[in-house]
Amino acid sequence: MGEVVVLAVSAVLLAGFYAAMAYGLGLIYGVLRIVNLAHGGIIMASAYVTWQLFDRFAIDPFLAIPIVLVVFFAIGVGIYLGLVRFLPRGPAGAVQSLLLLFGVWLVIRNVAYLLFTGNEQVIHTGYATSSVRILGGSFSATRLAVFAVATVALFTLHLLLTRTYLGKAIRAVAQNPDSCTLAGINVERIYVFTFGLGTALAGLAGTLASTLFAFNPSFGASELLKSFVIIVLGGLGSIVGIALGALVLAFAEVFAVYAVPPYLTTAVGFVLLVVVLVLRPGGLFGQRVLR
């Protein structure tokens, strides 16, 4: 029983990171209906930015979060204005957006190879080996900090979307952009802000990932795939559903050790994805629009 409790706590902590990893992808899809294949590349780039801030300027990864958010918000705005805004809207632009953003990911990855080579990098903080005992188990202080940041991000994003005029405008555009134009909402400006915010959230995920894992320029591929699994599980376009989907995926992976060898646990999420797509295409919690 004690082992089950420890595994449950581990799953909850892992779910926090998974949710933070998927927020940006879910937000961009929920408003622009674009699957941002550059999401994994942004996570990787953010990990390197965080490492550089730590290595060159001795800025702790968690203290670097505001810098990372600003930098990657600007990068997201630049990608949208320079590339994404020229794509056709709706189903006609689906294939073009996939190819374009996949190309952006390849560019980011190859630039990282040129700048940093393929060697793995690790951020060694003074508290990296610290641990906290919870319910009989010992858990890394870094994992607890990552969970806390992810939780704050979820509540902040939820409050932005539900309690502010800007958030209500974003949700309105997600539901019906044509009607928003008639109501005087600048839809293009909402798209710019949303893409920038989604990219900033991917940057946040990269910073959190850099405190947990070693990374190289190929980092981000599995994170992109798991993010996609999470937003499908939670219901496309639902921010709260993303948190629930992350919880489902984390519990499935952690408790899969009782049924499959450890090296197959990462495949559990993709099996779950196929099952959900077949039985409940709208997600386990239903398809909703940014709430």
Q: What does this protein structure show overall?
A:
- This is Branched-chain amino acid ABC transporter permease.
- It is found in: Cell membrane.
- It is a single chain.
- This protein starts with a helix and ends in a 12-residue tail after the last helix.
- It has 291 residues and is mainly α.
- The chain has a two-stranded antiparallel ribbon with strand order 1-2.
- The protein has helices at 2-32, 39-57, 65-82, 94-116, 141-163, 165-175, 177-182, 187-212, 221-234, 239-255, 265-279; strands at residues 131-134, 137-140.
- The model has no long low-confidence stretch (mean pLDDT 90).
- A hairpin with a 2-residue loop joins strand 1 (131-134) and strand 2 (137-140).
What key phrases describe this protein's structure?
single chain; mainly alpha; ABC transporter involved in vitamin B12 uptake, BtuC; 2 strands; 70% helix; globular
Helix content: 55-70%
Uncertain stretches of 5 or more adjacent residues: none
* Series of H and E elements: HHHHEEHHHHHHH
State the end-to-end CA separation: 36 Å
pLDDT averaged residue by residue: 90
